UniProtKB/TrEMBL annotation:
SUPFAM superfamilies: DNA breaking-rejoining enzymes, DNA-binding domain. Pfam families: Integrase_DNA, Phage_int_SAM_3, Phage_integrase. CDD domains: INT_ICEBs1_C_like (cd01189). GO terms for molecular function: DNA binding; integrase activity. Gene3D superfamilies: 1.10.150.130, Classic Zinc Finger, Intergrase catalytic core. Belongs to the 'phage' integrase family. This is Site-specific integrase. The keyword ATP-binding does not apply. GO terms for biological process: DNA recombination. The keyword Ligase does not apply. Site-specific tyrosine recombinase, which acts by catalyzing the cutting and rejoining of the recombining DNA molecules. Keywords: DNA integration, DNA recombination, DNA-binding. Residues 179-403 form the Tyr recombinase domain.
Length: 412
């Protein structure tokens, strides 16, 4: 019978284990899934055996420990992007730009097998607290990392996905109001539109902002509207695509506008026209009958309604720049007026195009109680999104409700 091998402390060594006195460390030798000899080392026998047990569990589950020990998060992400063929080009481009900007250096250089749940959660927290990145942006980063790790699980490189619930927990701890995009108040909305209407410089923007505030369209959906999407007789708007700017990346050779189809069925919808929206379209059509229609063609589509000064389709940047110029001009005039009237100025906040969608949704929620109707018009995939907006009562609405209650108090 072979004599059992022992270390310098008299402990019996298992099969595959060795102790090297000159080096003062233990080693364990095994064959990987490719029948290649692999060796791990440790100065502590108990820690070595913890790693041995993990290797044996992984081998029983078909997980290749050697690959896990050599694949970085970056390599796993690049592989995921290479095989994920059903992502739209714009989504792929945005994911890669977001990943390269915030993940590739640092976190992305770590070995995928070393990443734990706490590492992912801490990484997300650092992005928000140290790098001042908005939680919604971290959500996009999560959309890059979670499926990357999930593919590694399915490839049997790691046992479980460390991203599971990491973003959800971080969001919950930050609080539900962290990063909330507020709507314009009723007074702010009225002041903005009243200032544009008839203005010698900004009046030509009136139809565009009327449609944005009167439909709740996403910015890309709005600039992608074509005359064939508008049914003036039945006063209906068909939302079936969007125009987005695809940035330059390895998936896109140059930056350009491209047609983007809705990600979900909820994005394809019809929106009834308000009278003001109908009048806005009617004005644009009559003006273009005299000045000429938009002749831009993008991915085989043409007949786009709104155009810039050069006759091309609008972009989100065009709209945001117009909002900035309008609010700056309004605020300057309001400050002068307030000083003359000896009162505090009521200034418009700085806001972007997406504020207008949220503003419409807020006005809609203030006047409609059927959440399914609101969800359908807004194109929300999840009713939870609609409910969150519905729950965000404006201060004006709260005051109005309390005043109504006060007026009816004697009737109770």
């Amino acid at each position: 019978m072979a004599k059992a091998r022992k270390d310098n402390k008299g402990r019996v060594l298992r099969t595959g284990e060795q102790y090297r006195p000159k080096e003062g460390r233990y080693l364990y030798t095994y064959l990987d899934s490719r029948k290649k000899r692999r060796t791990i080392y440790s100065v502590d026998l108990m820690k070595l055996r913890e790693r041995e047990d993990e290797i044996k569990r992984d081998q029983l589950d078909g997980i290749d420990n050697y690959i896990r020990g050599h694949v970085t998060v970056n390599q796993a992400f690049d592989r995921y992007m290479a095989v994920k063929t059903n992502l739209r080009m714009t989504t792929k481009t945005n994911y890669e730009l977001m990943y390269n900007a915030h993940v590739r250096k640092g976190f992305g250089e770590r070995l995928i097998g070393d990443i734990k749940f706490s590492d992912v959660k801490k990484f997300y927290q650092q992005l928000v607290e140290d790098d001042k990145i908005k939680p919604n942006t971290v959500g996009t980063i999560h959309c890059c990392l979670h499926p990357t790790f999930q593919m590694a699980v399915r490839d049997e490189i790691i046992r479980s996905n460390p991203c599971n619930d990491a973003y959800h927990e971080m969001s919950a701890e930050l609080g539900k109001n962290k990063g909330v995009r507020n709507a314009l108040t009723i007074n702010q909305q009225k002041a903005f539109m009243d200032f544009i209407d008839g203005h010698p410089v900004f009046d030509h923007w009136s139809p565009a902002f009327t449609v944005l505030l009167g439909t709740g369209c996403r910015c890309g959906e709005f600039i992608g509207l074509r005359w064939e999407d508008i049914d003036m007789e039945n006063r209906m708007i068909s939302i079936n695509h969007a125009l987005v700017r695809a940035k330059k990346s390895r998936f896109n050779k140059k930056e350009r506008m491209t047609v983007s189809l809705p990600k979900t069925e909820a994005g394809i919808r019809t929106i009834p026209m308000l009278d003001q929206v109908y009048e806005a379209f009617d004005r644009v059509y009559k003006e273009q009958c005299e000045t000429g229609f938009n002749e831009t063609e993008i991915d085989g589509m043409s007949g786009f309604i709104f155009k810039n000064e050069q006759g091309n389709v609008l972009s989100e940047q065009n709209i945001n720049a117009a909002i900035r110029r309008i609010t700056e001009a309004y605020n300057m005039k309001e400050e002068v007026r307030a000083a003359r009237e000896r009162r505090e100025p009521e200034l418009l906040p700085h806001f972007s195009c997406h504020y207008l969608r949220h503003t419409f949704c807020t006005r809609f929620c203030e006047n409609e109680t059927n959440l399914k109707v609101i969800q359908s018009v807004m194109g929300h995939k999840n009713i939870k999104t609609t409910m969150e907006v519905y729950a965000e009562c404006t201060d004006e609405k709260k005051k109005e409700a309390m005043q109504n209650l006060s007026a009816k108090w004697k009737d109770f």
